[in-house]
């Protein structure tokens, strides 16, 4: 079992914060998180590209190259693998593993389950040590229909964990945990169970998705409102030197 896989079987779920650049990832790691994920929305938004449209392959790989050698375990949000060709997805996963990523998140976008299963199998062939978190969007973009059948297919294809964003009902979460043979990942949402409740339900991984990025944008607007109103900006503000030190850390690594 890899160190990243082991985090999914430790006491309590793996709380996985999601970063969008070098500074945010290093900041999260410095806060004590042993593993950090990326968020496809932030990567796409930073590049002025749409999320979930297979438009950010190069940006995603570039970020993985930047973060893969950092002192934390890196899992990469790769949308649907940026291709419908399983072999191309497998090759992309191989490139991620080569630069130091230890996990990949692959979403089905409610496309054909057999195609997504083929992508998962291709990734496990190309990068056997990469932890594949297979996401289904049955709750994110639908009414939950077909969830179990899809997850069973993804398990059979070799997924190391499965991700069901949008799933918030405690009874349904508990039922899935009992049904699955691999760790269940859910998305932390304001309307869903909190971390202690998710722990009791048996969830093994809790992702924050784009939450931190969106909160960062919101905090920037709040700070601007404070300045406009003549108030000192609220909240925690890292110093110039602290942020600059993160970039200098990267320069020293290179």
Automatic annotation (TrEMBL):
Domain of life per record: Bacteria
Signal peptide bounds: none
Name this polypeptide is given: Phosphonomutase
Xref: SUPFAM superfamilies: Phosphoenolpyruvate/pyruvate domain (SSF51621)
GO MF annotation terms: catalytic activity
UniProt cross-references to Gene3D superfamilies, sorted A to Z: Phosphoenolpyruvate-binding domains
InterPro entries: ICL/PEPM, Pyrv/PenolPyrv_kinase-like_dom, Pyrv_kinase-like_dom_sf
Family matches, as Pfam families: PEP_mutase (PF13714)
Organism of derivation: Streptomyces longwoodensis
